[in-house]
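Project outcomes to date are best conveyed with an example. Our students and postdoctoral researchers have been running inverse folding experiments weekly, and each run begins with a structure described purely in tokens. The record below, which covers 421 residues, was selected by the lab manager from last quarter's runs and is presented without edits.
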């Protein structure tokens, strides 16, 4: 929690360097196959808070597609819950809370979650926060509700990054998972691509063309310090963090054709790990650190392979029709996401690695850059709507879909951040 607050504080300070004017807007379509009815009461004394905490909680839960939200007025006495009355209103669970302004400029946020069926309290959270963290406290409460009612950890307090192309400039942005609290990490006149979060969520690796060629950097989001990780002859691209956080996999063309290398996060210890006569690129580490997935054309078309992080024999993973690019592996190692080129379209697919069952998750024609949420239940990706590039989120079962847009400019190259400890 302390690290998360430190990161938020640092990002808010960094935001004074410059903020984009257009915030991300979310459109939701579809719901889960089974929605849990939850009543979310307006928090008592919520008017004293700079953020409407209960509204943020409701928006988070609704966006997930897993809940049917029942609006409710303030519950004044949390010690005497009318369980039968709430059950009669169709609520299986009840969220209540209070917010009190303290003399030191802080806010006391208190929340309770009740099970109306078992007629018992399920959870509670009490936090004293500064004004800038009232939004974060709402996301944390939504995370707790999601966990207690589904058994799956919520991702509302995680962060996302993306590149916004606006007015001839490229802006590397960081925002809350709902697109709010948008902060500028880097501004450049040249392209920025392939952002990748460090496992602890305090750094971003990315590729910048500011030296008139692709170079891999790591930027500390707290100190804003940048480190050149790969600036070899030719192209330096596709950084991906190892789960340990002390090294990255990158794709370099220093030896004539693109191959995969590992490198320490400070730029030392460069080591080639793929050795094919073809193009090997877009490496992605599995969460257990035992495998690297990557794209290769060694089978005469782009397909996805897996190899040991120390190199050695690569095994082909995808076999269906169409070229496959941009492999991403879920945290539990069970699901592979990628972009497949079929019938002239580039669309988001997933592959169940145990059953080899493939599923198309997008109806668009120009998808790119998928990124799993930390709980593995949602995928963030870039797509095209008309003549504009935007972001989209889809649940891994394909039932819940969101579109994230801005009033001006294109947004692309998304990456979903990890859980902060």
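After processing, the design step wrote out the following sequence:
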């Amino acid at each position: 929690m302390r690290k998360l607050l430190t990161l938020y504080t640092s990002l808010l300070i960094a935001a004074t360097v410059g903020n984009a004017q257009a915030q991300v807007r979310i459109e939701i379509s579809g719901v889960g196959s089974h929605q849990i009815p939850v009543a979310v009461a307006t928090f008592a004394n919520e008017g004293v808070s700079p953020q409407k905490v209960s509204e943020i909680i409701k928006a988070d839960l609704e966006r997930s597609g897993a809940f049917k939200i029942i609006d409710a007025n303030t519950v004044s006495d949390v010690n005497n819950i009318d369980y039968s009355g709430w059950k009669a209103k169709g609520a299986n669970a009840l969220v209540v809370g209070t917010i009190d302004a303290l003399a030191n400029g802080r806010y006391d946020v208190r929340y309770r979650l009740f099970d109306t069926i078992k007629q018992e309290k399920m959870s509670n959270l009490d936090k004293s926060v500064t004004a800038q963290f009232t939004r974060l406290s709402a996301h944390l409460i939504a995370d707790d509700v999601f966990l207690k009612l589904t058994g799956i950890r919520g991702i509302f307090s995680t962060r996302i990054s993306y590149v916004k192309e606006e007015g001839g400039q490229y802006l590397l942005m960081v925002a809350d998972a709902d697109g709010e609290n948008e902060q500028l990490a880097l501004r450049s006149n040249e392209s920025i691509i392939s952002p990748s979060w460090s496992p602890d969520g305090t750094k971003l690796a990315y590729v910048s063309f500011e030296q008139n060629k692709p170079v891999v950097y790591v930027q500390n989001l707290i100190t804003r310090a940048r480190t050149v990780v790969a600036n070899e002859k030719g192209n330096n691209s596709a950084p991906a963090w190892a789960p340990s956080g002390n090294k990255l996999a990158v794709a370099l063309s220093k030896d004539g054709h693109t191959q995969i290398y590992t490198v320490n996060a400070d730029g030392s210890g460069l080591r080639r790990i793929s050795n094919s006569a073809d193009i090997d690129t877009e490496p992605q580490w599995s969460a257990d650190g035992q495998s690297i997935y990557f794209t290769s054309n060694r089978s005469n078309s782009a397909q996805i392979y897996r190899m040991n992080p120390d190199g050695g024999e690569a095994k082909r993973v995808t076999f269906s029709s169409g070229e496959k690019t941009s492999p991403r592996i879920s945290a539990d190692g069970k699901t592979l996401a990628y972009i497949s080129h079929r019938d002239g379209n580039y669309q988001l697919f997933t592959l169940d690695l145990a059953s080899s069952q493939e599923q198309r998750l997008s109806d668009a024609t120009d998808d790119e850059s998928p990124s799993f949420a930390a709980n593995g239940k949602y995928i963030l990706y870039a797509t095209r709507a008309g003549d504009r590039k935007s972001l989209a989120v889809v649940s891994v079962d394909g039932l819940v879909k969101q579109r994230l847009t801005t009033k001006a400019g294109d947004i692309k190259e998304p990456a979903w951040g990890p859980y902060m400890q």
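Residues 159-416 form a domain with the Neuraminidase fold (CATH 2.120.10.30). Helices lie at 2-14, 53-64, 83-88, 134-150. The training component of this project remains on track.
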